[in-house]
Amino acid sequence: MSTMQAVMLTAPGVVEQVTVPVPGAPEGDEVLIRVTRAGICGSELEGVVTKSPRRKPPLIMGHEFAGVIEAVGPDVDTARWRVGDRVVPNPLMPCGQCRTCQRGRTNACPNRILLGLHRDGGHAELAKCSVRHLHRTPSGISDDDAATAEPLAVAVHGVRLLGEAGVLPRSIVIFGAGTIGLLALQSARLAGATTTVVIDRDPHRLEVASRLGATRVIDARTDDGSTGALGRLALEMTDGEGFDGALDCVGVGATRAGAVRMVAPGGTAVWIGSAADEIPVRGMELVLNEKRVQGAYSYTDHDFSAALGLLAAGRVELTSWSKVYGLGEGASLFTRLLTHTEPCIKALLDPRG
To answer: Among 6, 52, 232, 294, which is most buried by a count of CB atoms within 10 Å?
Structure first.
C-alpha cells in the first residue's frame, strides 16, 4: 500500500477528497496508526469558513481520532506498545520543558503542537503519533466513544475549572448545545451540578440537551439581546441571584457577555474555545459584583485520562446524537455541515467505510 485516502485542506477554505502517499515508516518513538474513527470538530468547520491562517494547507485535519497500531518505530518499548493495540492519541503535544509546562499548564504551552493543525491528523486511513502522547483505548468502549475522548476532555477541563473556583455542585448555565456543550452538560451533572440550564438556537439540539438531563433548556431566539429576557430568567430560576457558574461553549461576543451577565455576584464564567476579538462586557459589572472570567483552552493529559475514564465507565451518552459516515464522503460532509443541510450534531468518519 503506497497511497491512502484522506480528507485534506488543499487551500484556504477548500476541503477535498484526495489520494496521498502513506506516511513514512515511524521513526524514533513514533507509531503508525490505522485510523478507525475520526471526528469533525467545530473548530475545523470554523477554520474552513474563516480561512484561518492557523491551518496551513495542504493539511490533513482531524485531531479527534482513535485507531489501531499498524507499525512501531525503533525506539518504541514493544513490551508496552504492540502492533494491534487499540489507541487514542492525545493530539495536544506540549514541549514539557518550559515554565508553563513545569507549572502543570501543558495545554497553554507556547511551544505546543496539535495534530491536525500543525501536523497531519486523523482524517485519513493512517496517521503517525509519538507514544508519549498515546493512551490505550479502554476495553469495552467503541471506536465512536474512543474518538470522542478529545472533545470530552475539553468539556471535562472547563467543568474542572468551575470546580476549582468553588462553583460545583450548584447552578450552572451552559451556552451552546453542540458537541462541547452537550458533553459539558453531562460532565457538569457527573461532577455534581444540581441545576443545569442549556441555551441554544437549535430546537433539535435543545431536545437532545433535555433528554441528557438538563434541568431546563432555553431557545435563545426568544431574546434578541436587547429585551433582557435571559437575564430576567436567570434571576427567576435562582431566587434573584443569578447562576453560580456559566460555561460558554459558543465563543461569540453575545454569549461571552451573556455568560458574565447571568452569573451571580462572586460567580465564574468560563469561556471555552475560540473567542471573539471584541467582547461587550461592562467592566463595572465585574468589579462591583466580583465576578470572575476564566479562559479555558483544550485540556491537560489529566483531563484526557479523566475523559477516557468516564467513557470506560459508560457515564457519557453519545450514540443518540452522533452519526458515522464513510471517509469517502468526508469532503462533501464538510460542505453539508457548513451549509447546515446535514442534521447531525457530532459527525464521525470511518476510514474503513
So the answer is: 6
* Nearest to 32, CA basis, from 90, 83, 92, 75: 83
Q: Can you tell me which residue has the cell 438531563?
A: 213
Would you say 256 and 271 are in contact if contact means Cβ atoms under 8 Å apart?
yes
Q: What angle do CA 176, 182, 185 make, to 5 degrees?
A: 95
The two beta strands, 126-130 and 113-114, are unpaired
- Quick one: what percent of the chain has pLDDT higher than 70? 97
DSSP-derived pairing of the beta strands 243-248 and 195-200? unpaired
The single-letter DSSP state of residue 252 is S
Q: Which domain holds residue 32?
A: 3-148+318-350
Runs of H (alpha helix) within 191-350: 203-211, 229-237, 253-262, 283-289, 301-312, 330-338
| Residue 224 and residue 176 in one domain | yes
Q: What is the value of pTM for the model shown?
A: 0.95
For residue 39, list its beta bridge partners.
64, 348
CA 268-271-275 angle, to 5 degrees, is: 150
Per-residue pLDDT of 169-195, as tens digits, reads 789 999 999 999 999 999 999 999 999
For residue 220, is it within any domain? Answer: yes
Domain count, the chain: 2
Give me the DSSP letters along 95-141.
-S-SHHHHTT-GGG-TT-EEBTTTB--SSBSEEEEEGGGEEEPPTT-
303 is a domain residue: no
23 and 118 belong to one structural domain: yes
Residue 310 lies in a domain: no
| d(C-alpha 9, C-alpha 46), whole Å | 13
The CATH number linked to 210 is: 3.40.50.720
Task: Give dist(CA 27, CA 38) in Å, integer.
Answer: 23
How is the beta sheet containing 195-200 ordered, strand by strand?
Answer: 216-219, 195-200, 171-175, 243-248, 263-272, 292-296
337 and 274 inside one domain: no
